[in-house]
Amino acid sequence: MRPLKREVLVFEDTRLLIRDLLKRWVALARAAIDENGLFNAALCGGCTPVEFYRQLSRLQNSSLWQKTHLFLTDERFVPPDDEESNFGMIQDSLLSRVDIPSANIHPMVKDPGDVCRACGEYAEVLQKHFVYPKNRFPCFDLILLGLGEDGHTASLFPQMPYHQDSPDTVVPVSLPRLKHKRISLTLSVINNSRHVLFLIMGAKKSRIVKDIIEGKKACPAACVNPIHGQLTYYLDKEAAQRLSPRKS
Question: All domains of the chain, ordered by start, with CATH?
Answer without folding.
Answer: 29-201 (3.40.50.1360)
